[in-house]
UniProtKB/TrEMBL annotation:
Spans traversing the lipid bilayer: 48-79, 113-132, 144-170, 182-204
InterPro entries: HupE_UreJ (IPR007038)
Name under which the protein is recorded: Nickel transporter
Leader sequence segment: 1-24
Keyword DNA repair included in the entry's annotation: no
Keyword Manganese: no
Pfam families: HupE_UreJ (PF04955)
Protein species of origin: Bradyrhizobium neotropicale
This protein's UniProt keywords: Membrane, Signal, Transmembrane, Transmembrane helix
Length: 205
């Protein structure tokens, strides 16, 4: 009798352990949507170019102006994410190309825009790219986790790119600062050229 009683307790304990393991597996699987949101922008060349260009633009204007993007850019991504089903692919592609061309020209010309204009450009860009990422969401995707991952990676890319640009440009007293400014302007020219090619492809299709 005691042996059967012990076997019953062992069987019950095994069932409870399996149930806990299954629940933990479900939670881990749901966390995959967070990582999908964080990695999804790296699958789109437009995200990589535009996010990097925005960070370089902010860094070229100085840390005091660019630091506002640490809040503005992730917020724009979150605002744009629910709008993913509204914009068409062609219109979004043309808007991305126009934004790429505009940011590239500002970098190439070393334009000193005010902080309010920088925040407006960055917010608008983030809304568009948030919508583009949201258009690829499936019905089973946890949108809260996806949005959290997207916002985190947006914050990280903008902050790191801006900080690296500030460090790269150096100070006015640094003798190497002029050629570094020229390098940033040359990068802006390449970004503008890519935006022009993208616009031509979208209009031709």
């Amino acid at each position: 009798m005691k042996l059967k009683f012990r076997r019953g307790w062992i069987a019950a304990a095994l069932l409870l352990a399996q149930g806990g393991a299954a629940e933990a597996h479900i939670v881990a699987a749901r966390l995959g949507d967070f990582y999908m949101g964080a990695l999804h922008p790296f699958t789109d060349l437009q995200d990589v170019i535009l996010w990097t260009a925005t960070g370089v633009l902010a860094g070229s204007l100085g840390a005091s102006r660019g630091r506002w993007l640490i809040l503005v850019f992730p917020l724009g991504l979150l605002v744009g994410l629910p709008l993913g089903r509204i914009f068409g692919a062609a219109s979004a592609g043309l808007a991305d190309a126009a934004m790429m061309l505009a940011i590239g020209l500002m970098l190439a010309a070393a334009t000193r825009i005010p902080t309010s204009a920088l925040c407006a450009i960055s917010f608008g860009l983030a809304v568009m790219r948030g919508a583009a990422n949201g258009a690829d969401l499936g019905p089973d995707t946890d949108r809260v986790l996806f949005a959290a991952g997207l916002a985190c990676v947006g914050y990280t890319i903008i902050t790191l790119t801006m900080a690296l640009t500030v460090v790269f440009r150096g100070t006015e007293s640094d003798g190497s600062a002029p050629w570094r400014t020229i390098a940033v302007r040359a990068l802006g020219g390449w970004i503008a050229a890519i935006g022009l090619m993208m616009a031509s492809i979208v209009l031709a299709s």
